[in-house]
Design goal:
Blueprint (H helix, E strand, L loop, with lengths): L6 H14 L3 H15 L4 E8 L5 E9 L5 H9 L1 E2 L3 H7 L5 E3 L18 E8 L5 E9 L7 H40 L11 H15 L4 H13 L9 H4 L7 H8 L1 H11 L5 H9 L20 H15 L11 H10 L7 H14 L1
Antiparallel strand pairs: 1-2, 1-6, 2-3, 4-5, 5-6
Length: 361
């Protein structure tokens, strides 16, 4: 029988997992699983504070048996209030707190209503020392936490709290970047009011098609950013052309077509968008038969993200009002997309799009 790892070995193991994890749940879940397997706890969870006026602690990861019922459902949906007595106690505690019977302690008020009779909690703090989250483990019967359990919980939570804090900070930076890219992508809509809502609609549709085609999370992120920024190059197109209520003449059309390459150069200057995102921006007007722009590749030489996005973009353009046309009915737009399969659009992408449309019918 393989001997159990020491607390020190567990800390090293979890630190390696956490450092390689892409997000908080991936880093924390293995810790929670081990807490449940190595202690009398039947369940364990990590709750993280969402700052703001209505700040609450939301479950980011869990393992084992959790409370059930309407109260728990509300907690999962709305979180635990920031000033829950246990969290207030942890806010002022230098380390973990252990309660053998939640019915006998004011700090654990509310937990007996969930059926949680014994609980332990450990604070996770940010770089300023403010409470950022909590590790919890619980039982549904009265339990005196043993010295070994307390040592394990203290060792794991104390060491990995700093890693969780770093991951939370990383997530915040990623979220800020996401919001910035989205905000940039909305900029053209403030010049051309008739396109209001286009960016979000076409992004959502492109992502649904991408999911149907089995894109990875990384590829979906690149597609999403490309969808956000696909029209950013229109900031370089004069109003006389961009907002012209009639069909563009040949010279104006050539100028309008430069928005894809302008957008590509603009986004590339940001440095952080991946190549797949830049490809969506530059190539979203390419055609399967090679007659598109900016560069004229054909077939699978066109980046997949751009092939997906072009279908979503055309569908949205057809079904919404433009200065030069009325909105098409959904059925007519779908038929038009189908008719362009193999000419303007990748047949495989069109098939995924049509399957998606059938589920909406």
């Amino acid at each position: 029988m393989k001997p159990r790892e020491s607390n020190a070995e567990l800390i090293v193991e979890f630190a390696e997992i956490a450092l390689a994890a892409p997000d908080v749940p991936a880093a924390v879940t293995p810790i929670l699983e081990r807490l449940v397997s190595r202690t009398a706890a039947v369940g364990s969870a990590y709750f993280q504070l969402t700052p703001g006026k209505d700040g609450a602690f939301f479950a980011r990861a869990a393992s084992g048996e959790m409370p059930t019922g309407p109260t728990m459902e509300r907690i999962l949906q709305h979180g635990l209030p920031e000033f829950t007595p246990l969290f207030e106690a942890l806010r002022g505690s230098p380390g973990p707190l252990f309660f053998a019977d939640t019915r006998l302690a004011s700090e654990t008020a509310g937990f007996p209503d969930l059926g949680v009779t014994s609980i332990a909690g450990a604070p996770v703090r940010d770089e300023t020392g403010a409470l950022l989250g909590t590790f919890l483990m619980h039982t549904f019967v009265r339990h005196e936490w043993t010295e070994a359990e307390a040592d394990l919980f203290a060792a794991i939570s104390g060491t990995l709290a700093s890693l969780a804090a770093r991951l939370v900070a990383k997530e915040a930076a990623v979220s800020a970047r996401e919001r910035a890219v989205h905000a940039l992508g909305l900029a053209p809509e403030y010049r051309d009011r008739e396109t209001k809502g286009h960016t979000d609609r076409v992004t959502n549709l492109a992502l649904q098609v991408g999911v149907a085609l089995g894109l990875t999370d990384s590829a979906l992120e690149s597609l999403r950013w490309g969808a956000y920024l696909h029209d950013i190059g229109k900031i370089g197109i004069p109003d006389a052309v961009l907002l012209k209520p009639d069909r563009l003449d040949p010279a104006e059309w050539e100028l309008m077509k430069t928005h894809a390459s302008i957008g590509h150069h603009f986004a590339a200057a940001l440095e952080f968008p991946p190549a797949e995102t830049l490809a969506v921006i530059r190539s979203h007007h390419e055609r399967w038969d090679g007659s598109g722009y900016s560069d004229g590749p054909r077939g699978e030489a066109i980046p997949l993200g751009a092939r997906i996005f072009s279908v979503a973009d055309v569908y949205d353009a057809l079904t919404n009002v433009r200065l030069y046309k009325r909105a098409w009915r959904h059925e007519a737009a779908v038929a038009e997309i189908r008719s362009r399969s193999g000419a303007q659009f990748d047949p495989r992408v069109v098939a995924a799009f049509l399957s998606l449309m059938e589920t909406r019918a």
